[in-house]
Hints:
Blueprint: E1 30-37, H1 41-57, E2 61-69, H2 73-83, E3 87-89, H3 92-97, E4 103-106, H4 113-122, E5 127-130, H5 137-150, E6 154-157, H6 164-174, E7 181-189, H7 211-214, H8 216-226, E8 230-238, E9 243-244, E10 247-248, E11 254-261, E12 266-272, E13 281-288, E14 291-296, E15 302-307, E16 318-321, H9 342-359, H10 367-386, E17 390-391
Parallel strand pairs: 1-2, 1-4, 2-3, 4-5, 5-6, 7-12
Antiparallel strand pairs: 7-13, 8-11, 8-17, 9-10, 11-12, 13-14, 14-15, 15-16
Helix pairs in contact: 1-9, 4-5, 5-10, 8-10
Amino acid sequence: MQVSDSDDNRFATGCKPVFRKGAVVTEPSTEIGIGILGGGYMGKAHSVAMASVGAVFDTALRPRLEMICASTPESAERYRAAFGFVRATDDWRVLVQDPQVEAIVIATPQLTHREIAEAAFALGKPVLCEKPMGADLADAEAMVAAAEGSGTANMVGYNYIRTPASQFARKLISDGVIGDVTWFRGEHTEDFLADPKAPATWRTDGMANGTMGDLAPHMINAALALIGPIDSLIAEAETVHKTRPGGEVTNDDHAQIMCRFANGTMGHMFFSRIATGRKMGYAYEITGTKGAIRFDQEDQNAIWLYKMSDDEAERGFRKILTGPAHPDYEPFCQGPGHGTGYQDQIIIEARDFLDAIHSGQPVWPTFRDGLDVARIVHTALASAQTRSWLNIHPKG
Length: 396
């Protein structure tokens, strides 16, 4: 897809974020066969996104829902019929190797990500992989090596940072509206396991499924996008409800990180799946020398901005409702304050993935960007064991 530089805000790696109100297609669209692995929560979200993205953004590449894979033939066929795929399979290898599947979305449990991604890259097929990239740091490193060795488009599915409000926050910071950033506080808090009587499930078994593997990557990704690289940290991770009906809990319920960013900013992040009352507590506060920003995903269509340059009698946080003047809003709705939703984040993500394939240029966050998140999670877990400050990139 050809777009003018002034309209591009795809978070291209290393680039300053700017506005993009919609794609400007200068050539006929081309069909591309999409294969999606997993038909559950995220499998459905990606299927709907790929079915919608062409109409929303008028993309140069138009997805064809070619094949979906699930754990059994029955569930695969059920998802195929529900989501509109041409074919279905219960064998991921069949999907990856099929010549009609030209790009792949991985929405399966993280223990499976590495093997699927390596197989796809070996065939030169682009991959969009849900977070976290793999089960551990070794998986993430191997997946980056496979991605970069193939020279093929690759992305990690961090959708929340793509809301028009958070894209606008990133631009405000980049443009210096709040001055030099001095403090960052972020959280990803939910309460889906707040009840100690909730039964043990796959979410309560294995470190990759704990809060540090499941929720923390989203806010760590946001911190890196908004503030920049993290130099060092100290962390705690804790299992509050050690047993549940049906079994022992083997991973963490909540965790916190105190950190220092490479640009000198101080920071703190908290993650929890037992935060009573929180449903989608993806929130951050950013303090600068000229102003401050607040955002909460439970009110995802608003951002709060404070500017010291305002008249003292009127100085205070003001609520800004997103609208067509903000990044990636207008393609969904022309009415200010009407708002976008969770599914729209995934559609924006699909647009970026298709752009990366079509342009041949990396679009943030690539697998290497996902590795940065995995390295911070790995370091935080190590810090929680030693109860000490650790460098993200140890010297020597």
